[in-house]
Amino acid sequence: MRAAILAVAVLALVPIPARGDASEPIPAKARSLADRGRAAHAAGDYSAAITAFTQAYVIAPSPALLFNLAQAYRLQGNCDDAALMYRRYLATNPGADQRALAETHLASVERCLHKIALHIPLETASLRAASPVMQSATASATPVSHRAQIEKDVGIGLAIGGGVSLAVAAYYAIQAHEAENDVGAAFARGGRWSDIADTDARGKSAATSAKLFGAGGALGLASGVITYLIGRHDEGPPVTVATTPHGVQLGVRWAY
Fold first, then answer.
1. Which residue, 85, 97, 133, 178, is most buried by CB atoms nearer than 10 A?
2. By C-alpha distance, which of 65, 63, 70, 64 is closest to 85?
3. Which residue, among 101, 106, 100, 99, has the nearest Cα to 85 in the 3D structure?
4. Are residues 70 and 158 in the same domain?
5. Would 25 be classed as within a structural domain?
6. CATH code assigned at 51
7. At 191, is the pLDDT very low, low, confident or very high (cuts 50, 70, 90)?
8. pLDDT tens-digit profile of 55-82?
9. Are the beta carbons of 79 and 116 closer than 8 angstroms?
10. What pLDDT is attached to residue 236?
């Protein structure tokens, strides 16, 4: 009991991280503690999971750790601390699907607190039930993170811009080729340089523009494809549901 009170007190003093990926790398110690917490959670040792998640959170605060702490407290039957962690997680402004899942669990632990206040016997099975928003053993949808969607949109925009630049480069290349042919034909007819200087200058200018637009278009197209692929890599279901020998286990995609 003292350890649980101390853990909640420590978490209350740690600032709530804003939504989004941290710009600084996650310390190896925090990663190790988070992995240890997930392993303990999967094994049903919620006390050990809470300890590991708390230590990881103190080192590197993360909304995902708040959610997993709330899950561990709820499955442990600690409605009071679970409600606190769910509220702290919701304060990080998660996405719509994560918010709906957290609010559903928060409502269940708040009912638990109400029953405790009224001295009504608790049904632990209701605390460990799967969220009603998930109807199957696997998430039926794959919500895309806001960052991944932005990356994909930027990638598409760059690719389109690169394609347009390549088309403009092709137009100028044709103009340069036609000007070169006109200069050659004029020389063959014995034309004077003063008569064909303008055509030659126009051809050289078109050739320069073709090179510039071609280089920019190739760079934009390549950058767009790479950025889009990065967005595809970053997207994925933030919420997962899996069956276990003890029932159903819910989780969120880790930020690290």
1. 85
2. 70
3. 106
4. no
5. yes
6. 1.25.40.10
7. confident
8. 999 999 989 999 999 999 999 888 889 9
9. yes
10. 53
